[in-house]
């Protein structure tokens, strides 16, 4: 990644009409329908955007969408990238840098995850309070990172406190049961073994997934306030572990999506 590449990507999107979005949104597995509510959408397919990776996961759409949501200009990733697709962490987080260059002031992230905290159930929403990075790398570990921001990014409060509090307030007002917890990101794409679930519980995780942490690290590197919500799609109970199908994960995420969309739309309105 170079500044020249980043500028070329941003210039392409500006020419398409991506004009000063205020909020960036990353939609996770099974959570793509929020884009249906964007008015006057401008769509850029990932395979047409210079230097953009391609979404290779069948249930990730592969579009960057610009338009108006709740009266605010937004840019939405319908489909994200993962290390397990063969990309590196710089590829995975490239869109965050692009959205920041386009002008976003806030970033909202969603994902589907498996519960480690057995007080959670399928379909619950979990506000991410903090995270654990088990991906084996950092999106900031590259030569020339200083051209994009301070190398030693502070991570003492990676998720914006004001937006977290606002989401809690909105959830209460809308009668949405919003849990809170620690998210751990692992490489995947295989799901966890019983022993791995036990380990993740010991180190303090409430939910596990294969995304989000790289995007949040880069948002902090860019001093971009970020908030993230997980949909709990399966339960990692090591004493009662059952096979999980990806189809089931997508189905559970789809059922929980209206609650997620409600939270994000109301939060956009207040920002």
Quick overview:
It is an enzyme of class 2 (transferase). By secondary structure, this protein is of the alpha/beta class.
Q: What does the secondary structure layout of this molecule look like, with pairings?
A:
Blueprint: H1 3-16, E1 23-27, E2 39-45, E3 63-69, E4 72-78, H2 89-102, E5 106-115, E6 125-134, H3 161-173, E7 178-186, H4 194-202, E8 207-209, H5 213-221, E9 226-235, H6 246-270
Parallel strand pairs: 1-4, 1-5, 5-9, 6-7, 7-8
Antiparallel strand pairs: 2-3, 3-4, 5-8, 6-9
Helix pairs in contact: 1-2, 2-5, 3-6
How would you describe what is shown here?
With 271 residues, this protein is α/β, with parallel strands linked by helices. It has a single domain (3-270), classed as 3-Layer(aba) Sandwich (Rossmann fold). 31% of the residues lie in helices and 25% in strands. The protein is built from 6 helices and 9 strands, in the order αββββαββαβαβαβα. The protein has helices at 3-16, 89-102, 161-173, 194-202, 213-221, 246-270, and strands at residues 23-27, 39-45, 63-69, 72-78, 106-115, 125-134, 178-186, 207-209, 226-235. It has a 5-stranded mixed barrel. α1 (3-16) crosses α2, α2 (89-102) packs across α5 and α3 (161-173) packs across α6. The longest helix has 25 residues, at 246-270. 46% of the residues are buried.
């Amino acid at each position: 990644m170079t500044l020249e590449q980043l500028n070329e990507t941003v210039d392409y999107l500006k020419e398409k009409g991506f004009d000063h979005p205020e909020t960036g949104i990353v939609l996770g597995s099974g959570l793509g329908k929020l884009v249906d509510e964007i008015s006057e959408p401008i769509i850029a397919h990932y395979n047409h955007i210079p230097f953009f990776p391609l979404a290779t996961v069948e249930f990730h759409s592969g579009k960057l969408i610009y338009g108006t949501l709740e009266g605010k200009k937004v840019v939405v990733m319908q489909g994200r990238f993962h290390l397990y697709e063969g990309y590196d962490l710089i590829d995975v987080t490239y869109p965050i840098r692009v959205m920041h260059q386009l002008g976003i002031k806030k970033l909202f992230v969603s994902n589907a995850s498996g519960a480690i905290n057995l007080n959670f159930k399928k379909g619950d929403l979990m506000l991410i309070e903090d995270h654990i990075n088990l991906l084996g790398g950092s999106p900031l570990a590259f030569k020339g990172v200083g051209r994009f921001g301070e190398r030693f990014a502070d991570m003492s409060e990676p998720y914006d406190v004001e937006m977290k509090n606002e989401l809690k307030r909105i959830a209460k007002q809308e009668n949405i049961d919003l849990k809170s917890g620690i998210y751990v990101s692992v490489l995947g794409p295989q799901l966890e073994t019983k022993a791995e679930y036990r380990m993740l519980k010991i180190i303090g995780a409430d939910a596990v997934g294969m995304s989000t942490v790289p995007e949040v690290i880069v948002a902090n590197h860019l001093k971009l306030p970020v908030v993230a919500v997980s949909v709990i799609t399966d339960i990692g109970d090591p004493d009662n572990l059952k096979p999980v199908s990806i189809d089931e994960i997508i189905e559970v995420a789809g059922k929980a999506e209206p609650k997620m969309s409600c939270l994000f739309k109301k939060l956009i309105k207040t920002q």
